[in-house]
Amino acid sequence: QVQLVESGGGLVQTGGSLRLSCVDGGGTFSNNAMGWFRQPPGKEREFVAAVTVNGGQTYYSDSLEGRFTVSRDNAKNTMYLQMNNLKPEDTAVYYCAVDNTYGRRVYFHQPQFSDFEFWGQGTQVTVSS
User: DSSP for 41-57?
Assistant: First the structure.
Protein backbone atom coordinates (compact mmCIF):
# COMPACT_ATOMS: atom_id res chain seq x y z
CA GLN A 1 0.00 0.00 0.00
CA VAL A 2 1.32 3.43 -0.93
CA GLN A 3 2.32 5.58 2.04
CA LEU A 4 3.68 8.97 1.05
CA VAL A 5 5.43 11.18 3.58
CA GLU A 6 6.68 14.64 2.69
CA SER A 7 9.40 16.47 4.60
CA GLY A 8 11.76 19.40 4.25
CA GLY A 9 9.33 22.28 4.50
CA GLY A 10 9.87 25.25 6.76
CA LEU A 11 10.29 28.99 7.01
CA VAL A 12 12.77 30.65 4.69
CA GLN A 13 13.50 34.21 3.59
CA THR A 14 12.95 35.48 0.07
CA GLY A 15 15.74 34.25 -2.17
CA GLY A 16 16.43 31.21 -0.02
CA SER A 17 16.30 27.52 -0.89
CA LEU A 18 14.64 24.38 0.39
CA ARG A 19 14.66 20.76 -0.69
CA LEU A 20 11.52 18.76 -0.18
CA SER A 21 11.51 14.98 0.01
CA CYS A 22 8.72 12.51 -0.55
CA VAL A 23 9.23 8.95 0.64
CA ASP A 24 6.94 6.09 -0.30
CA GLY A 25 7.05 3.76 2.65
CA GLY A 26 4.84 1.01 1.35
CA GLY A 27 4.11 1.08 -2.38
CA THR A 28 5.66 0.23 -5.71
CA PHE A 29 7.37 3.59 -6.07
CA SER A 30 9.48 2.78 -9.10
CA ASN A 31 6.46 1.77 -11.24
CA ASN A 32 4.71 5.14 -11.36
CA ALA A 33 5.36 8.72 -12.31
CA MET A 34 5.29 11.10 -9.36
CA GLY A 35 4.26 14.68 -8.93
CA TRP A 36 4.37 17.71 -6.66
CA PHE A 37 1.43 20.01 -6.12
CA ARG A 38 0.93 22.96 -3.81
CA GLN A 39 -2.00 24.72 -2.21
CA PRO A 40 -1.47 28.38 -1.32
CA PRO A 41 -3.60 29.86 1.47
CA GLY A 42 -7.18 30.32 0.30
CA LYS A 43 -6.50 28.91 -3.15
CA GLU A 44 -6.96 25.64 -5.00
CA ARG A 45 -4.30 22.97 -5.26
CA GLU A 46 -2.05 23.54 -8.30
CA PHE A 47 0.48 21.56 -10.26
CA VAL A 48 4.16 22.22 -9.55
CA ALA A 49 6.29 19.48 -11.11
CA ALA A 50 6.28 15.85 -12.19
CA VAL A 51 8.83 13.18 -13.05
CA THR A 52 8.19 10.07 -15.10
CA VAL A 53 8.69 6.51 -13.95
CA ASN A 54 12.39 6.29 -14.77
CA GLY A 55 13.19 9.95 -14.23
CA GLY A 56 13.65 10.45 -17.95
CA GLN A 57 11.13 13.26 -18.35
CA THR A 58 10.35 16.16 -16.05
CA TYR A 59 7.52 18.68 -16.25
CA TYR A 60 7.04 22.01 -14.52
CA SER A 61 4.45 24.69 -14.08
CA ASP A 62 5.28 27.63 -16.32
CA SER A 63 4.99 29.97 -13.35
CA LEU A 64 8.12 28.57 -11.70
CA GLU A 65 10.48 30.27 -14.15
CA GLY A 66 13.06 27.52 -13.85
CA ARG A 67 13.59 27.89 -10.11
CA PHE A 68 12.52 24.37 -9.10
CA THR A 69 14.00 20.97 -10.00
CA VAL A 70 12.25 17.63 -9.52
CA SER A 71 14.16 14.37 -9.31
CA ARG A 72 13.75 10.85 -7.98
CA ASP A 73 15.88 8.07 -6.55
CA ASN A 74 14.06 4.79 -7.12
CA ALA A 75 16.56 2.88 -4.98
CA LYS A 76 15.50 5.02 -2.03
CA ASN A 77 11.79 5.24 -2.96
CA THR A 78 12.20 9.00 -2.75
CA MET A 79 11.28 11.98 -4.89
CA TYR A 80 12.79 15.42 -4.35
CA LEU A 81 11.90 19.00 -5.14
CA GLN A 82 14.80 21.44 -5.03
CA MET A 83 13.41 24.96 -4.70
CA ASN A 84 15.73 27.92 -5.28
CA ASN A 85 15.23 31.67 -5.24
CA LEU A 86 12.04 31.27 -3.27
CA LYS A 87 9.45 34.04 -3.33
CA PRO A 88 6.60 34.89 -0.95
CA GLU A 89 4.13 33.63 -3.58
CA ASP A 90 5.67 30.15 -3.19
CA THR A 91 4.17 29.97 0.29
CA ALA A 92 1.88 26.93 0.33
CA VAL A 93 1.39 23.42 1.58
CA TYR A 94 3.30 21.14 -0.78
CA TYR A 95 1.97 17.67 -1.55
CA CYS A 96 3.46 14.74 -3.38
CA ALA A 97 1.34 12.23 -5.26
CA VAL A 98 1.53 9.06 -7.31
CA ASP A 99 0.38 9.03 -10.94
CA ASN A 100 -2.57 6.72 -11.55
CA THR A 101 -1.17 5.29 -14.81
CA TYR A 102 1.22 2.37 -14.39
CA GLY A 103 4.62 2.92 -15.96
CA ARG A 104 3.94 6.34 -17.45
CA ARG A 105 7.01 7.55 -19.37
CA VAL A 106 5.55 10.67 -20.94
CA TYR A 107 2.72 13.18 -20.50
CA PHE A 108 1.01 14.47 -23.64
CA HIS A 109 -0.46 17.32 -21.65
CA GLN A 110 0.58 19.29 -18.61
CA PRO A 111 0.16 16.96 -15.64
CA GLN A 112 -2.99 17.75 -13.71
CA PHE A 113 -4.76 16.83 -10.53
CA SER A 114 -6.82 14.08 -12.17
CA ASP A 115 -3.66 12.22 -13.26
CA PHE A 116 -2.72 11.47 -9.65
CA GLU A 117 -3.91 9.41 -6.72
CA PHE A 118 -2.42 8.52 -3.34
CA TRP A 119 -1.54 11.87 -1.83
CA GLY A 120 0.74 12.62 1.07
CA GLN A 121 -0.25 14.76 4.05
CA GLY A 122 1.72 17.77 2.86
CA THR A 123 4.54 19.91 4.19
CA GLN A 124 4.29 23.64 4.84
CA VAL A 125 6.61 26.04 3.04
CA THR A 126 6.56 29.66 4.18
CA VAL A 127 8.63 32.32 2.44
CA SER A 128 8.97 35.59 4.31
CA SER A 129 9.51 38.89 2.53
Answer: TTS--EEEEEE-TTS--
